[in-house]
Amino acid sequence: MEEENLVERIRERYERALEQIEAAARSAGRDPRDVRLVVVSKAQPLTVVRAAIAAGIRLLGENYPEEAVEKMQALAAETEVEWHMIGHVQSRKARLVAEHFALLHSLDRLKLARRLDRFAAEAGRTLPVLLEFNVSGEATKYGWPAWDENAWEALVPEIAQVLQFEHLRVRGLMAMPPLPREAEESRPYFRRLRRLRDFLSRRFPEIAWEELSMGTSADFVIAVQEGATLVRVGQAILGPRKQ
Ligand SMILES: *Cc1c(COP(=O)(O)O)cnc(C)c1O
Predict the structure, then answer these.
(1) Quick one: which atom of ligand 1 is closest to the CA of 106?
(2) pLDDT of residue 77
(3) CATH number of the domain bearing residue 102
(4) Which atom of ligand 1 is nearest to the CA of 220?
(5) For every residue of 149-185, which 3-state class applies, written as one string?
(6) How far is the centre of ligand 1, averaged over its atoms, from the C-alpha of 198 (Å)?
(7) Could you tell me the distance, in angstroms and rounded to a whole number, from the CA of residue 100 to the centre of ligand 1?
(8) Is 75 exposed, middle or buried (0-12, 13-18, 19+ CB in 10 A)?
(9) 218 C-alpha vs ligand 1 centroid, how far in Å?
(10) CA quadruple 30, 231, 58, 8: dihedral positive or negative?
(11) Ligand 1 atom at shortest distance from the alpha carbon of 234
């Protein structure tokens, strides 16, 4: 009984989020099919992840590689799920990420790129990645510094190095601006990430830069209006995280 209610609650919130995404995309003259909803299941127990899958969700985002791999292994026999890594990756967790995830949203330093490339090569695969940028200047945020648009040129040499790795495929950009009190407060940061994408497209036209990962429960509607192709929504769909 309890479980069924959980599935129904998640299904309702998931469908509502999809409707909001569709409306936001249309209001911005975008095709809603260009936006994918990554449901963030970090710190949610297996019962909640199973309920999410029962509710029709097939794209999940996790922050902690070990926790994620445990969930993958527990669910592997049941359903095909696409798993994205969205959180900061410690160097010693690089192998797990290189081996297990369909997309890493949060590649934030050259040294990590080098390790991921090596482990992806050993695993015989190419790892799709997004580059994380700090567009707000908040000291606690990860990512290449990108809050000062006049300093973007200085990022070019290091980004060029990241693009050289044979077993990484850079597909776009990601940002995690400060938690807003109101969703509108995030808009300038999302716009900045989009402009940075345009800047990098001019500098590196050989790369498609097709993905923009931005927006959480607090502000995904604004993110879609500003061009997000991936939104990362946890609590608005799965409910509050335990712990
Ligand atoms: C936790 C997290 C999210 C989702 O946050 P919610 O408030 O649950 O929507 C999105 N992106 C990143 C990087 C996160 O760590």
Answers:
(1) 13
(2) 87
(3) 3.20.20.10
(4) 9
(5) HHHHHHHHHHHHHHHHCCCEEEEEEECCCCCCCCHHH
(6) 25
(7) 20
(8) middle
(9) 9
(10) negative
(11) 8
pLDDT, residue 2, reads 72
Q: What does the block give as tokens for 137? A: 């200047």
Instruction: Establish if 132 belongs to a structural domain.
Output: yes
Among residues 179, 219, 222, 173, the alpha carbon closest in space to that of 193 is found at: 173
Read off the pTM.
0.97
Bridging pattern class, strands 127-134 and 103-107: parallel
Q: Residue 86 falls within a domain, yes or no? A: yes
- CB contact at 8 A, 142 and 134: yes
| Backbone angle region of 137, left / alpha / beta, with phi > 0 → left and psi within -120 to 50 → alpha | left
Q: Which ligand 1 atom lies nearest to the CA of residue 241?
A: 8
Tell the residue nearest (CA) to atom 6 of ligand 1. Answer: 234
CB 51 within 8 A of CB 92: no
Q: Tell me the CA–centroid distance for residue 206 and ligand 1, in Å.
A: 31
- Domain assignment of residue 197, given as a range: 2-232
Distance 23 CA to ligand 1 centre (A): 22
219/78 Cα distance (integer angstroms): 32
Residue ranges lining ligand 1, Cβ < 6 Å: 40, 42, 63, 86-87, 176, 216-217, 232-236
Q: Which residues of the chain have pLDDT under 50?
A: none
* Residue 100 identity: H
Query: Which pLDDT score is estimated for 178?
Result: 95
pLDDT at 1: 54
Residue 238 falls within a domain, yes or no? no
